[in-house]
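Many introductory courses stop at the sequence. We go one step further.
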Amino acid sequence: MQPVTRIWMIAVLANVLSFNGYAQQKLSQETPAARVDPAPSEPGRDRSVSEIADLVRPSLVKITQVGREGPYGIGSGFVISAEGLVATNRHVIGEGRRIKVETSDGRLHEVSEVVASDSRLDLAILRVTTKDLQALELADSKQARQGQPIVAMGNPMGMAYSVVEGVISEPQREIEGQPMLQVAVPIEQGNSGGPLLDRQGRVLGLLTLKSALSENLGFAMPVNALKLLMARPNPIPMQRWLTIGVLNPRFWKTLLGAQWSQRAGVINVSQTGAGFGGRSLCLWHEDPPSENFEATVTVRLQDEAGAAGLAFCSDGGDRHYGFYPTGGKMRLTRFDGPDVYSWKILEERDSAAYHPGDWNALRVRVSGGRIECFVNETQVFDVQDSGLRGGRAGLCKFRTTEAGYKRFKVGVDVAEKSPSAEDATRLKKSVELALSAGTEGEKERAFGDFASAPSTSRRLLEEKRRSLQKDVERLGEMEVEVHRRSVREQLLEELGRSAEPSDLLHCALLLAKHDNPELDVESYERGFSQMVQDLHGQPEFGQGLTAAVRRLTQYLFEENGFHGSRGDYSSRSNSYVNEVLDDREGLPITLSVVYLELARRLGVKGVVGIPLPGRFMVGYRESEAQEFVFLDVYEGGKELTLEQAAALVSEDGVLSPKARTPATNREIILRMIRNLLGPLLESRSPAREALPYLDLVLALDPDAGRERVSRAMLRERVGDKRGARLDVGWLWEHLPDGSRENQREMLEQWMERLAR
């Protein structure tokens, strides 16, 4: 263990007693590129509303989402380049949907790619194959003023190419953290994405939101936000766009309509199915392993009046069983055909084990002529029925239900393994012991028992939380703590491997799971493996390192649209690699994780992460005798020399040897944790929000002195004097030789205060 440096000790301890210290020190965080405000447009002659309508109509488009059953939604857009660029709202084009673009002359235009999209700004730019379109002039939305007359155009309620006039009522209205133009004009369904124009016919913004308070009040995204996308596109060809949020057809087959999608490992369904009663199915690609099998899924209904759950013994058509909640009751049904006369409800009853409005685990066991059904591992049905056998298992939904599904499994035995009676008794006693722990030692013994069976322990804690409402908050904290300790141990185990390199993607997903216990890590690993498979065997990977690297860059940034975050750079989503994979947008370090793991899994040697100050990059070189070529993944994998990289991140244009030394996986994960931790310490957020990240840092780097000081201060603040004493004791033991007497005195005073 290395001694703490004197420089660090002087800088930090001087502020310990006043609780300033590290909480006001800025951690290393990536910083976005500087933005350039657009120049104001030249003033011109004001036009009448009819003149503006005539001017704009050739540039106005109607945009239609096309779902599985045909047109699904209509919105507006407008041409911003004669080369076929069309601007609209992000929500107008949907998630992975086919898109139709129609101009006012009735022509349909094929969409070749989504040039740029940003969910936070709710903006998108499409490219159509037509090259003779008339573009609108873009104004400077910073020049918008209160009371300024404006004109809005769009396709309200499907009535194409309508026009209305109004005024700007507030040019800087913040909506969910985003400045918007508040306008006194009606915005209806179909208006979204249409242009908001000044009286010269220039675009000031894009109509986006309708006010819930007034029919004649709405909000528009300023056109300067659109210019951000135009300056930094992330093009995705339509054949790849159509895969975003779509279930992988290698694993799932959907039947009878409805809208099935997947995000963050959760399968979601909406819209009415085409089957009788709004029925729709989503079947797993493999048959059960034998005639005697089990299937399970965890489901949550948005409305308990709906119905959604497990389908099994399906022939791929109208014949199958269904086990699902409906109207708050549990139901087992056999479907022998397409209409109401071929349905048979085998069992239906209330169950105290079902929790309305929450996630519930459903499980069926098929054995011979017997069907057993469980909810949250409590049996609700035991039925003799052999009318259907064979076929596949999967998901079902009925009526207009919106529901989410996760953790689907099918196999011989998929039940959560219960502990022995002796272990269950011991774990229940540990729950009681943890609730009434009089000492920290007793609490630690209880958590030691939980660590032996974290899933079972978490379930027991959840049951106790439901039964004792007065202890809900305390038990919830324990549940989270069990989860975080489990994730922490998994991270330590993965990063502590010596026989083979650790899996960086798995570690980054574990870090995301630390904050989101419901994250399905396996689902993202399967999706990432498919990305690797997309590139596997391509010729560039046999043509040397440079060719392989450039193919990786092309695949990620040109073909799949990965890009650096443009707007909300500080969003925590940018630090969660699962959301980076979902949205194809992130920080330099999270984009680097994706790049590095693709390279590793494809066997590309010589590609490493370079921890430059303020901007993490990827580097590659043929041999150690050569200097690295730097890849700025935040800017689409742009290649930089050492001098160019240094000029970008360093004021004096010089990079220290340490800054150019490849980062280990442990160092990369630590930097990601500090990116999450830094804003919490700087903003003086509640101490309990920062403590888990400090625990993570110190678990991975016990010698991190600054974090040790911060944790001691925050532990004292929340009343954990024992924990604070342990940290201050560590600081005392690791004072460097020759420390100043006043530093020792400060630590002594701190220890005395904690002992009171």
